[in-house]
Amino acid sequence: MSEILNEPFVDAHQHFWNLDLHSYPWLQGETVPNFRYGDYSALRRNYLPEDYGRDTAACAPAKTVHIEAEWARDDPVAETRWLMEVAARHGRPTVIVGHAQLDRADVAEVLAGHAASPLMRGIRNKPVTAARREDARRGVPGSMDDERWRRGYALLAEHGMSFDLQAPWWNLDQAAALAHDFPDTQLVLNHTGLPSDRSDAGLQGWRDAMARLAREPNVAVKISGLGLPGRAWAQPDNVPVIRDAIDIFGPERCMFASNYPVDSLVASYDTILAGFVAAIEIYGARERRALLHDNAIRIYRMA
After folding, report:
1. pTM of the full predicted structure?
2. Arch. (CATH architecture) of 10-299
């Protein structure tokens, strides 16, 4: 460990991809509209355990959670099979969150295929959300309100799977209803609820939405994805947001996550980790260990 941290920690959100062997449309021809960091062409390269190892050389996590990396959607279970091979060779990732399109007709088959992997812990499926706060609506097809999508979500409990949610804060009213209606499924909010609007009004809207979601006891949040387009990752920008998120959810329901290599667009791994460590220095030793390690171990069942 470096001077950043002298205790074990878990990276609860990282990705690998091999563009030479597999298809990732968002990295190979397609373009993600309104990508929150702007130009992401620097990500159009292989990112494998040796690359992650170089990026984390000064502060290597004890365990990692691999989140599906937008593998071609025709066979999402193939990504899990490949990651099992990667883990057998390299010792990373520790556990896997795969992809399943919850409103597809074959969702039960896909979930069963993922469940065959001993490293599988949950599913991420990005529901339909609004690109702007003023466009947020309830009941949109493919959203968390959609009954067909919810029928797929209901199947997660049969496999003991959690759900990783990526959605902007103005859609978190739907997430709160989802968590309330399916109390036996652990919901993990990705990227701190995407507080991209750092105006006073934007941050207040984010805090209000996060507080509504935090009322549901089966929700946790990953502190990640806090970069701002056109700006280097900076503690004055992000430490207050980290502390607000932890204050809202409590230190027993928040986790460190790097979102590497995506967040390499805005910061080195060391910078992100050091910022998180600085943000949590106000807590006691037990709470810091929970935020850095124990919560992720519990929520992603890595004990």
Report:
1. 0.96
2. Alpha-Beta Barrel (3.20)
Phi, psi of 17 (to 5 degrees): -155, 150
Nearest CA to 193 among 120, 260, 249, 134?
249
Neighbouring C-beta atoms of residue 290, cutoff 10 Å? 22
Other C-beta atoms lying within 10 Å of the C-beta of residue 32: 11
In whole angstroms, give the CA distance from residue 262 to residue 16: 10
pLDDT in tens, 105-122: 999 999 999 999 999 999
d(CA 155, CA 101): 12
Four-residue CA torsion sign, 244, 245, 248, 254: negative
Of 40, 154, 49, 38, give the one whose Cα is nearest residue 92. Answer: 49
Residue in 93, 102, 104 with CA at minimum distance from that of residue 157? 102
